[in-house]
Amino acid sequence: MAQAKLGRSEQVTGWAFVAPALVLLGIFMIYPIIWSLWMSFQVGKGMNLSFGGWANIIRLTKDPVFIRALVNTCIFFVVQVPIMIVLALLFAVALNDPKLRFRGLFRTAIFLPCVTSLIAYSTLFKSMFATDGVVNNALIWLHVVSGPIPWLQDPFWAKVLIILAITWRWTGYNMIFYLAALQNIDRSIYEAARIDGIPAWARFTGITIPMLKPVILFTTIISTIGTLQLFDEVNNITIGGPSDATLTLSLYIYNLTFKFMPSFGYSATVSWVIVVIVAILSFLQFLIARDRRPAA
Amino acid sequence: MSGLKLRGIRKSFGAVEVLRGIDLDIEDKEFVVFVGPSGCGKSTLLRLIAGLETISGGELDIGDKRMNDVDPSRRGIAMVFQSYALYPHMTVRENMGFALRFAGVAKAEIDRQVTEAARILELEPLLNRRPKELSGGQRQRVAIGRAIVRHPQVFLFDEPLSNLDAELRVHMRIEIARLHKELATTIIYVTHDQVEAMTLADKIVVLRDGAIAQVGSPLKLYDDPDNLFVAGFIGSPKMNFLKGIVDGSVVRLPDHGNQTIPLVAKAAHGSEVTVGLRPEYFKAGGASQLDVTVEMVEHLGSESYAYARHGAGDVLTIATQNDRELKGGDKLSARFDPAKALLFDPAGQRIR
Ligand SMILES: Nc1ncnc2c1ncn2[C@@H]1O[C@H](COP(=O)(O)OP(=O)(O)OP(=O)(O)O)[C@@H](O)[C@H]1O
Ligand SMILES: [Mg+2]
Known about the structure:
CATH superfamily of the largest domain in chain B: P-loop containing nucleotide triphosphate hydrolases
CATH class of chain A: Mainly Alpha
CATH superfamily of chain A: MetI-like
Number of domains of chain A: 1
Strand content of chain A: under 5%
Helix content of chain B: 10-25%
Number of helices of chain A: 13
Structural class of chain B: alpha+beta
Shape of chain B: elongated
Strand order of the largest sheet of chain B: 6-7-8-3-9-10
Bound molecules: adenosine-5'-triphosphate, magnesium ion
CATH topology of the largest domain in chain B: Rossmann fold
Distance between the termini of chain B: 37 Å
Largest sheet of chain B: 6 strands, mixed
Oligomer: heterodimer
CATH architecture of chain A: Orthogonal Bundle
Order of helices and strands of chain A: HHEEHHHHHHHHHHH
Radius of gyration of chain B: 24 Å
Largest sheet of chain A: 2 strands, antiparallel
Structural class of chain A: mainly alpha
């Protein structure tokens, strides 16, 4: 092996080159990760910590706020990710059609939200969806609703609002991945399908989707992780309210650490819950997307 | 009845006119080859017939039915693409059966059709593989199989062999010729390989700049080209073109020391003509003769090509049968039968 043949000085030089990166990685990633795992077994308030064994995990099962946050997060994830992925796919396919006019304009418009400032858009959403905001006014004017929708006051509508917001912000981001993948598909495959008389819907489900499968898997996992860590929107638009209806795990961790009497050990435990859920979901998604037909 | 009739077919992309009025009749069960230089509109014409592009003007009939605005899947055609265009995530079996699933064919019948096509194309052992697990030639056969199962009246091939290596190309060429016999359907085949065109075609259509330069059987185009373009395009090595000036009843060749050959067609005294001589027209015992100096010789085994010129004139290609001793610097008296020389006017049209 080449490795064995490397001289001592090359070894040293090599390590010297990667050392800065390794040190930084160690200090800012690996150490905190291990430390947070250790923390998650500590109980106590503020700096007054002691080893508590499984105490935090038992506390989790009895903590109604945690359960609330977990359920909310799962709702966001289960409802929002599929909606966004499907929307992004449809946009990508539509924008990939060379017959569509102003494609560049639409593409930019759909992608722009994900490069806008979080605070700016959160504040804007908050004012747009206020009881007397433009959205309600428009809906009333269009006779879609008779009275204003209590976006920020009703637990159900607050969730809808959050889902709308993150969908608005991240659909374009996912769409870009699909567009890139679509542009790599040989056009003549679709022409062959047209000549073969494959209807448009079957071209989409039977050709486009399977060919985009690796990208769909990738974006699904990225979006899953993103949604499970959902923090900014809920913190800025609804502050977890009304009455914890939009409280997410990340927001709960933040509250536990910085808002309430600091409970570092317990918040570390909640963080690790997210890690475990992400790991399980990613594994499941890989399992589902795996090629179940080994080559003959 | 599945002949095709093209009347004044035009195609423009924006302001660019790519096809400028194509009139063509294709008989039922005929093997027609479109040839022409790159960019002359071969693929575009094929795609118009397939319905992948809209026709800008003119009329397209397939089997006596006007097809201008008919959906590609209802024209009774199947197409094989240069890039194969197989569905990469499907097995060979699924690739071939996919179209039938949407044509309302029963599952057992699909299986039967696919098996039958696989037998014809010797694909049986590969039915459960994916395209990426196949060689180029095998992929091409799958693409043909996918066309066969639909039982089209007309097969369209767009440079199907140009991604294959030379040996496989010869093999697949023979396969396609065999298929044409076996399936007895009309085939329209695009290529820029004139050997493919000469060997496969019942009828060759030579295209140039979006118009037909000449239509005819391979040997007709070879022996009796209508214009300089076709004369130069068909045949390898290329036909020699010599500048000539009509001088009474002879043609004088100014680049060849004013040697003369008898005038074989009607042309006015003093007019400029181009004399076309195929390399293989040079034979011992011909009545006319050109004195040239050999520059280089290519020995191909069965025959040799001498590249020779007179003074500073253009290089001539001369085929010689048994002259293995010939080498650069040799003087050569190349004899030919002047009756075989072709004459073209300054516009490139044949003078007969
Ligand atoms: N979609 C298009 N938009 C604009 N111009 C096009 C389009 N398709 C083809 N053309 C032009 O039409 C002309 C003919 O193209 P075509 O593909 O038919 O050539 P071809 O004879 O098949 O050449 P080749 O042997 O290189 O495949 C070219 O000049 C090409 O640039
Ligand atoms: Mg082409």
